[in-house]
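User: Teach me something about this protein's shape.
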Amino acid sequence: MKKYIIFGGGSYLSDIFDLIHANNGRVWKIFQNMPEITKAGDLTLRQRVSLLDYAVEIYENLETFKPEKDAAYVIGCITVHKYVLIQELKSKYGLEVASLIHPRAHLGAHVHVGEGVTVGPMTVAAPNVYLDDFCAVNRAVSLGHDARIGKYSRVGPSVALAGGTRVGDKCSIGISATVLDHVTIGDWSIVGAGALATKDIPERVVAYGAPAKVIRKNEEIDFVVYQSNRAIII
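Assistant: First, the predicted structure itself:
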């Protein structure tokens, strides 16, 4: 049984546990990279771990981490700002991050899966979809033929991306959003929950509605701003 070491955490962590178990793995250690913040109704890290039927080692930071020969490494958070953590892990330790594909997801012919990609159950990726490094695709997502999801981007549950769509790097596509054929979402942009993107969305903006309209600039590109708002957006 493969042993997994998880870096980071958040409300998606239990889904990461599920992906690991579905791939016949076991959570071994968790290293937090910043102080934990939870919303009302969310379980804490230790509460999530307590629901497992085995012990897991938890560390408050990366200071005690040493690479383990027989372990696989995964990222426990899906915020696009995980790129900061991944860059640190790469530069300090040269780690390769494992991809986790739920066995109840369907990947069509010639689907590219990059490093550190996660794909949840009931997701369907049509032929020739390209999942770039470290993107996160949630549950029950529909990815049309030739669609592309950029590095570090996250796609929420029940999103529908039509054929030929392009989601840039470090984008966030909210739950149940729809992106029509051949529409491009620019780097660092956010498409809100339930939105309908009928035309291209430029870089570094937040867009909501049906049809989706640009509401404002994405100010959380700045990591300092992101950290100050972390209790809101994790």
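Now, about its shape. Residues 2-93 form one domain. The two ends are 31 Å apart (CA to CA). If you'd like, I can walk through any region in more detail.
User: That's plenty for now, thanks!
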